[in-house]
Specification:
Structural class: alpha/beta
Order of helices and strands: EHEHEEEHEHEHEHEHEHEHEH
Largest sheet: 5 strands, parallel
CATH topology of the largest domain: Rossmann fold
CATH class of the largest domain: Alpha Beta
Number of domains: 2
Distance between the termini: 32 Å
Strand content: 15-25%
Number of helices: 10
CATH architecture of the largest domain: 3-Layer(aba) Sandwich
Strand order of the largest sheet: 2-1-3-6-7
Length: 265
Amino acid sequence: MEELIQSELSILLIEPSKMQQNIMIKSLNEESITNIEVVSSKLEALGKITKYPPDLIISNLHYQDGSAIELLHTLRKYAEFSSLPFILVSSEQRRDQLEVFKQSGILAILNKPFEQAVLKRALKSAVAFLSREDLYIENYDVNTLRVALVDDSKLARKAVSKVLQNLGLNNITEFEDGSYAIDYLKSNEIDLLVTDYNMPLVNGIELTKYVRSSTEHSHVPILMVTSEAKDSHLEKVLEAGVDAILDKPFDTTNIKSILIKMFQD
């Protein structure tokens, strides 16, 4: 899909509550979106998706026959649905309950009750995720840029990789931990590092410090994608030498301008 108009989005809405269905449909209609299929269960959702895959799934957290994370993990097992954009709508506020979604590569979490502007931003991010727009960076050939993508979540790597590929960055090498990235960097060069914060063996800060202390790689731009929103953590990240930080789930509309700035600074 090269270019997509927001009003042309086909959306599968998964919501058990009739009242919440009506609220969500009204909000989507306000954004000129009318192509909306509504189901109330995981089984119904899987039936619709396998027959007529939507452009975007917007889902409540819980259903009578399962949960959104169960549905998401089921879909990610199949190549044709592995990059299907997913927006969660939930009143859940507990960090530990939402963390699994942040690590699963979803586009956005809309906290109930959400403002229309929040939905508008999430839909804009979905369009950017689904569209291809080549990145132009002065003095660089984007097609040959070597990217190291480091995240212990396979789903998160898949989502970030999809966004980068939409910008023309196709030379991507993936690692599930900072330790593997360091081994790779000992004998290979890269042009961009995109890394998670939390990883089991070598985390994003430790990886960043290694890169910044390395003669061969100290100049490499570093983008950190993290669900760690604490000020103390972000301060440590910036002190380590990261060039830019994006929250998980991240707004895909920002990444192009962020990358341009990183390479031009």
